[in-house]
Write the structure tokens for this entry.
Amino acid sequence: MITWYHSWRAAIRIARRDAWRSKGRSFLVLAMIALPILGVSAADLTVRSAELSTEQGLERSLGAADGRISDPGLGGVPIMQSPDGRNYNPIGDFDNKPWPEGKADITKALPAGAKTLKDTVGSAKLRTTHGLLHTEIRELNASDPMAEGILAVVSGRLPQKPDEVAATTHFLESSGLKVGSTLTARGFDRAYRIVGSYELPNALDTDQVNVLPGAMLAPLDKALETAGLSGTSPSTTLLAAVPGGFTWNIVKDINTKGVTVESRAVSLNPPADSEVPLFQEEGWGNFEESTAAKAAALAAVGTVVGLAMLEICLLAGPAFAVGARRSRRQLGLVGANGGDRRHIRAIVLGGGLVIGVAAAVVGTVLGLALTYLLQPLLENYLGKRFGHFDVRPLELLGIALLAVLTGLLAAVVPAVTASRQTVLASLTGRRGVRRSSRVLPVIGLIAVALGASIALYGSMMTDQFAIVAGGSALAELGVVALTPALVGLFGRIGRILPLSPRLALRDAVRNRGRTAPAVAAVLAAVAGTVAVATYAASADAQGAAEYQAQLPHGAVSMTIDEGGGRDVPGARSTVQKLLPVDVRADVDRISVGRAGCGMYDSGKGCGRYEIIVPKANECPLWATDPAHPDQDPSEKFSKAERRKLAEDWRCKEGSGGGAYVDGGVAVADAKLLKVLGIDDPAAEKALAAGQIVSFDKRNVDSKGKIGIRLITDIEAADRAAEKGQQPPGEIKTFTAHMAAKTNSYGLSTLLTPAAAKSAGLTTVPLGAYFSTDRMPSTEQRQRLDGELDKTGAAVNLHIEEGYTSENSIVMLALTVFAGLITIGAAGIATGLAQADAEADLKTLAAVGAPPRVRRTLSGFQCGVVAAMGVVLGSAAGVLPAIGLRLTEERQQRAWYEQALDEGWGAMDSVPYVPIVVPWETLAALLVAVPVGAALLAALVTRSRGALARREAA
């Protein structure tokens, strides 16, 4: 035991001394190991610090209250809820009767003796230095002790008077206002003074202002209603405190009154699932991740960590081999003085241990320091404050041990190789001759065949991506095992090369022990890059083939579907002013009810309209039978009949597009046809005659008419639809013109403003469509976005550019990453080759070789390693991408067939899932990276070596 301790102590001291002497190589290996440790430890600290304890989460949600009472909007019918109050369901069977809707009186649900604090939240557009900003308005007396912890004051104070407000720091940054500024809302003449700033610890990026209860929302709603604008849509909850808190029995009693409770007591001590009525219902439960899912996730994490460690070992292993080779005289002296092979192995392994421990310490300490220093930035990125800086020593120790293990594993092969050198060979500098292993290539070949078979099975016979990924990973490991044999095959092309590349290739093949790990490292990095690049290029090709233009190329659409079109005229003028507009077509929409209702509003006084589809034109797969309104219409057809009906023109869905208007009727003149590129003189003539133009023949009845139903009572219409009946409402009838078949970009029917007015329809501005002389520039778009933002309106702006790939940056980053790994691995192998080939270089110099031969040989040695790794990696990387694409094709074809069988309607075509090889990325990897690596190695290599010393024969 004592002998073992002293031998390892001496080995580690020697290793530490060698690491300090070779600072550059040691720093390189340390950085390779420490950087992943830094990232993982920082991620662990960030995730753990961002996780809130139950108490911390309750403090941010409830403050000091015992619970929060909320109205789920089910009309006060008894409900069942989950312990956290996030899930709920009404008690009873509502399959054959309308789903309950309406408000409940939450104040009547409170137990006797409860103290309450009202918390009301609405939203409106507030005036800022830049224009208008849609902002939450919260009426909460945040100074009340019950609300302590919900808001965190940053500066100033909370409001104490009705004309005072506090604002979140994010709102102040977005609005350009500050504490002391005056704040007003659009459509409201009352002014408020900002007296403080605060933040919501769980939502740092929220634009919100806080006022006293009753100080803003009610008077603002009244003013907005007078102006014909949408209100603030306030919702109220109650913070409550009761003696003993809200126990689970109290919560269930309150549920009988139709309201939900978020209870502090229940959250801290939740009931068993058997005591939760909601979890006993079919389809409900306390869903947790299954054991199989946890095992799969753990396997995925383990695979990623294992592959990362393999890559680091492949990169760092040759670096340890360089150190062992340059220290071979020292190791020989150890053997000459009585040391055996295990002492030699201990010295080389000690190098891995020393650098692994140093990397663990450096990575962990830097991870701690960076996370602590960057905590504000991390919190802003996550959008919430940390609960506390949570350091878990055991987790960090486990991460640090990975660094130590990686360092040791990287040094294993160099240690075994060094220990096999004889003392004489080490002292004289002779390398000896070793035959390469014959077992490893066989194992690699078996792994390649087995992995390829698994990947092929997964892509052709199953829909499981995990099988394809696992088989591909096994095949790639097999290729790594085959690398020494494949390197030998590359040597056959040496006879046709000039002197320097022939020498470099011959040296690489003869010394596969140092060449193979570097080539394998390059292979692994390039294989991953090629796999992702191939998949991304294939997905891009599929996206381009499936892309449907919203508008003609270069055309612009601008719509605003809120506020009754109040902001539309100004936005139309802004777009026309700032973009190179050729033709402008203003578009209105039909409005039913109050003029201030938005397109999708269903509140008080708001209605809607619909185009009446004649019974004969309805798709049988979708037509509801009034006698059986709950029955799926497609169930009465066989699969063959469903497939046949899917090709029926009545069941063909439109392709969609940017000219679609909710309800189906766009109110505009013939300019819209010009903007959309529709050349139809007959349609223009029909518009001039006051007719409605239809691009969907399902809307036109046998008499050539189109009916539009105006629905003023939305609830009655919904009840009628549930029963399969026609909804009540006035019907307007128009003579229709069926337009020629063309791409209408989603435009269903077109009606002129004059025809709409003569029919008694009320219209409001919706937006405009523009054709342009040329594609708007980036500067013009930025200027336009800035001007539209000042309006505070929710502007829907679209400029048709055609299909644009989102993977170009990703592919460039992957290429750069693979290039860096390639250059690093090839550089390490070149350093090892130079250490080995010093005698050969001296011989070349002695026989008259010019100094540039040293640079040229070094460059070609680096280029050869890079080229071999890139070629093998490119071939290995295509397999997983092809497997994944074939799996996707099977999935999409299965969905397509299922859609036809179930009567969901026909898709446009059979799914198109191409496999595209990214030739540009491959060219950069196959040509640019090896050439760049060779040139870089040649540039950093000295032309003349160190002066040779006389050695004993």
Notes: The longest strand covers residues 115-127.
